Amino acid sequence: MTTRWLAAVTDTHARRLRELDPILAAPRPFEPLEETTRGDTQLLTATAGRSRAAGLARTSHQRPIEFASCFGALRHHSLYAHLDGPDLAEALRALLETWRERLATDDPTEIETAASITWPSRDTAPLPALAQYGFSPTAVIAVRGAAAAAAADIADAGRAQTTEGLHPESNVRIRVAEPEDLESAVSLHMELLRFDEQFGTCTVRAATEDALRANLASSLARGDGTHILAERYGKPVGLAIVSLPEHTGWLTGLVAADRIGYVACLSVRATFRGQGLGRALMRVAHRRLYDSGVDTILLHHALANPHSTPFWCALGYRPLWTQWAARPGTPMFPPPPRRP
């Protein structure tokens, strides 16, 4: 397809998303087809009547010793798509079929393979196509905008009984974590990962804990106040970790904001949940982010976690993007040809 064709699809897609959710970042334009087809990246196009679709398909590979491999299959196919026309579901179906043909060489029995699409949460018209091809919603990228944050903070302030919202007899202390708190941070973060593993959003691998320890050792050494620890009688019972704008460049294509904060972790020991400790940790975490001058805050949470959506909603977060995934055995992955 021509550059003009691609630009027209992107412009229409951008206008539609801007009306649905103004806080979304403007869609990235596509390069001409011949300039984009290289290696593990390919530009796909499709038409369905008067509807059109363009998508950038990528294949990435993770080594199991890397911490990032905890959050997906080792062989990961992703699609970034733009849609245009009167029937968006049909446009996406046509594009998915084109992508499906590209995945036909994958082993349909390989469990460490997945295909995923991250789609604007408020754009529901194309979703029947995802369901038809076996995609399921797995996680949400949630946003905390200024207005929702102000309303949530006012409501939370009325609930707080002390500076951090904990009862004075709770014997809980909240403080900035130091490098010597490394093993406490690792233990609390691993508890969160093992809990989320139930919902299919992460896989705790043999090397995950060592990789996490290395990451936390490096980030704690920065001493920037982004790791917040809760202790009861001196024992660690909760952890919040946030990322300041200088470390969130990977989020710039998701939200229309210049300075983005990110909540990387919120973990509370199972025996201490339901006592306001998560809220208290996030009150301190939010203060650290807003003190750094963020415009907005993003986070990921598992859709199947029964605690996540109501908790984050009460703190002023709402879905911005939804992550959809399909594994071998679903219609997205063609079955092997039958032997004669």
TrEMBL record:
<feature type="domain" description="N-acetyltransferase">
    <location>
        <begin position="172"/>
        <end position="337"/>
    </location>
</feature>
<dbReference type="InterPro" id="IPR050832">
    <property type="entry name" value="Bact_Acetyltransf"/>
</dbReference>
<protein>
    <submittedName>
        <fullName>GNAT family N-acetyltransferase</fullName>
    </submittedName>
</protein>
<dbReference type="Pfam" id="PF00583">
    <property type="entry name" value="Acetyltransf_1"/>
</dbReference>
<keyword id="KW-0808">Transferase</keyword>
<dbReference type="GO" id="GO:0016747">
    <property type="term" value="F:acyltransferase activity, transferring groups other than amino-acyl groups"/>
</dbReference>
<dbReference type="InterPro" id="IPR016181">
    <property type="entry name" value="Acyl_CoA_acyltransferase"/>
</dbReference>
<keyword id="KW-0012">Acyltransferase</keyword>
<dbReference type="InterPro" id="IPR000182">
    <property type="entry name" value="GNAT_dom"/>
</dbReference>
